[in-house]
Amino acid sequence: MGKPHRKLLRSFVKSALTVSRLFGAEPLRGCCTRRLGISTHMRYSQFREDMKNPNDMEHMINRVGVVANICDQMGNKPIMYRQVKDIPNNMLRFVVKVTPQENRVYNGNEKNPAQEGVIKALGISNPVWATLEPHAGTRAPFGVNHMMIPVGDYKIHHSSEVQDLGRKDDVEKFMDTYKTGWPDPSHGDNEVIVDCVNYYLINVGDFVGKYAGKKAKAILARNQSRGYYSDWDNLNKEMLKAKFSTYKDVGWYLANPVTNYLKWWASKFPRA
User: CA-to-CA distance for 120 and 108, rounded, in angstroms?
Assistant: First the structure.
């Protein structure tokens, strides 16, 4: 790009930011919708979705209350986990609302076209991949570790024979193995396909390491076996699954210690 073009581009950006400030828009803050790449632990299921952080601390407290009620209503269903990239790294990242784009293209189709056939045969419009098995760290190969809370009229599809649909070259053979409904905990790390129009994400590291109380912090255990700290294996998975085995468990903590902490923080730093 030549100097005249760079100068013109800088002028355009400066003007856009000036107009943004004049009209009160804050496009770089978490309150705005972001269209981001989101990945699960599955190999080929990376795609783009609309993501919304809370506007501010008051909004986050209200959203935590909403999610707590949803989790309480979900009762003893096992928790689903999902790895996500590109969420803004600030306090408001703790609870995020995501809207999958209907009939969007997901990269798995390029690697394994048969995957699309299975999705269509199951009648899925908005596929979102998850697993019942949490990653061993707060960060994972495909992003940050999150608990996934689907909302609305969603459906769940799963197969005990398919760990990762994107890696199956003969996926048609497994069509009859798919079931609809919640899998039990023995489903392990096999993928779960959720067809939903909205879902929430709870940041696992923030949940156990900051907001859920002193006892929950013990889950965030540094693995010193490699000689240095890594957030890829800093969770005690067995302790995590024992303490938070169901959505009802998560709901109680969101409604009590998490909400109490956030309210304290808001009163302590009202302008933050």
Answer: 14
Express each pLDDT in 35-74 by its tens digit. Answer: 444 333 333 334 445 778 888 999 999 999 999 999 999 9
Domain assignment of residue 78, yes or no: yes
CB distance 60 to 206 below 8 Å: no
Beta-strand (E) ranges in the chain?
33-38, 47-52, 80-84, 95-100, 127-131, 139-140, 143-151, 155-158, 179-180, 191-195, 198-203
Whether the CB-CB separation of 81 and 145 falls below 8 Å is answered with yes
Q: Is residue 22 part of a domain?
A: no
Are the C-beta atoms of residues 254 and 71 closer than 8 Å to each other? yes
3-class state of residue 63 by DSSP? helix
Comparing CA positions, the residue from 248, 250, 221, 226 lying closest to residue 237 is 221
Looking at the structure of the chain, the number of domains it has is 1
pTM of the prediction?
A: 0.78
**Residue 18: partners with Cβ closer than 8 Å, 6 or more residues away:** none
In which domain, by residue range, is 235 found? 27-268
